[in-house]
């Protein structure tokens, strides 16, 4: 197996509703306690005001990269939905249709800060149709939070998105906040080295994918392999699942993905250790960040951070990582990826 050609990096680590019936009862009890005078006591009035304020809160919009199949990601959202219901005390609505998010801007009123659990009326998950769409949503200020890859995060910032990384998953298989890109081939393939890929068909994930494009491309350049001229066919599959499916179905001779997605695919796909193998794997890559809008209040960002860090082990990251909790991350953790983008001349707009 060809090992990585880029030096590994080290990363620091740490570990991420109101129910209508309850709210209705609270309002009714408050009103009944006024008696025949028709007046509401100050104490009961505060209950009504709190309930009203919570009902008027905006929804927290969360965008998700389409790294896996839609069915897989919808299933991953379910346990996160349950966890958020418990940790944030809010009803969580999930929506996975790939559509542009509508609605007005989110203006937080000062009095909302007085209510401990008043974060959002709901949490709406939106699975993008491709990597570009989720960046567009961020630029259009239609998301409060997003699950991105390292490269798509940097692309969004370069294009003007006002976001910052919050946390990233700790990989269950390594116990570290990083993962590795890889290229896989069929077990009986005559392809033994990366140079053997010349003249062959290869599947990448997306040009904004870190493990499914950037890392393999950097290694190809070091080996003098031109992705525009040296392959018989280049397929951009759109997701890690689709990239591996193309190999399974014989559409391509090799597929770019990452170790975590490959191991997961072995559990429910046609690829197994018996009929496939890893041709190459990369240096460690800082794990995919969950980013938040800088327009969110510091208190809301703090509480979201606490929720993720306190999440139970075994909760799958929606991007596809089998995680063992979450780690705090900062923009500097993704500097090596930014350097690779510059090395490959993949920064298409001036940095902000």
UniProtKB/TrEMBL annotation:
<dbReference type="Pfam" id="PF12974">
    <property type="entry name" value="Phosphonate-bd"/>
</dbReference>
<dbReference type="InterPro" id="IPR005770">
    <property type="entry name" value="PhnD"/>
</dbReference>
<dbReference type="GO" id="GO:0043190">
    <property type="term" value="C:ATP-binding cassette (ABC) transporter complex"/>
</dbReference>
<dbReference type="GO" id="GO:0055085">
    <property type="term" value="P:transmembrane transport"/>
</dbReference>
<protein>
    <submittedName>
        <fullName>Phosphate/phosphite/phosphonate ABC transporter substrate-binding protein</fullName>
    </submittedName>
</protein>
<keyword id="KW-0732">Signal</keyword>
<comment type="similarity">
    <text>Belongs to the phosphate/phosphite/phosphonate binding protein family.</text>
</comment>
């Amino acid at each position: 197996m060809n090992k990585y050609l880029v030096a590994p990096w080290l990363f620091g680590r740490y570990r991420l509703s109101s129910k209508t019936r309850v709210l209705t009862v609270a309002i009714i009890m408050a009103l009944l306690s006024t008696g025949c005078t028709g007046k509401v006591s100050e104490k009961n009035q505060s209950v009504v005001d709190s309930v009203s304020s919570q009902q008027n809160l905006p929804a927290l919009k969360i965008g998700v990269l389409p790294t896996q199949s839609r069915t897989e990601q919808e299933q991953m959202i379910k346990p996160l939905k349950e966890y958020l219901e418990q940790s944030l005390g809010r009803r969580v609505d999930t929506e996975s249709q790939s559509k542009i998010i509508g609605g007005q801007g989110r203006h937080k009123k000062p009095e909302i800060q007085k209510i401990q659990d008043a974060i959002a009326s709901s949490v709406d998950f939106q699975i993008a149709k491709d990597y570009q769409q989720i960046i567009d949503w961020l630029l259009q200020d239609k998301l409060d939070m997003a699950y991105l890859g390292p490269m798509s995060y940097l692309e969004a910032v370069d294009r003007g998105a006002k976001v910052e990384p919050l946390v990233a998953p700790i990989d269950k298989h390594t116990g570290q906040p990083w993962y590795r890109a890889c290229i896989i081939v069929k077990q009986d393939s005559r392809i033994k080295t990366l140079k053997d890929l010349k003249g062959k068909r290869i599947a990448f994930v997306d040009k904004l994918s870190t493990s499914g494009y950037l890392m393999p491309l950097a290694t190809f350049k070091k080996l003098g392999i031109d992705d525009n001229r040296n392959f018989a066919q280049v397929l951009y599959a759109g997701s890690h699942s689709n990239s591996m499916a193309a190999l399974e179905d014989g559409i391509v001779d090799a597929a770019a993905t990452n170790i975590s997605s490959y191991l997961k695919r072995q559990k429910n796909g046609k690829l197994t250790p018996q009929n496939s193998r890893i041709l190459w794997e990369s240096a460690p890559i800082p794990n995919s960040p969950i980013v938040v809008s800088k327009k969110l209040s510091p208190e809301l960002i703090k509480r979201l951070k606490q929720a993720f860090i306190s999440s139970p082990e075994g909760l799958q990251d929606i991007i596809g990582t089998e995680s063992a909790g979450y780690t705090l991350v900062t923009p500097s953790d993704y500097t090596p990826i930014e350097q690779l983008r510059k090395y490959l001349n993949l920064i298409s707009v001036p940095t902000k």
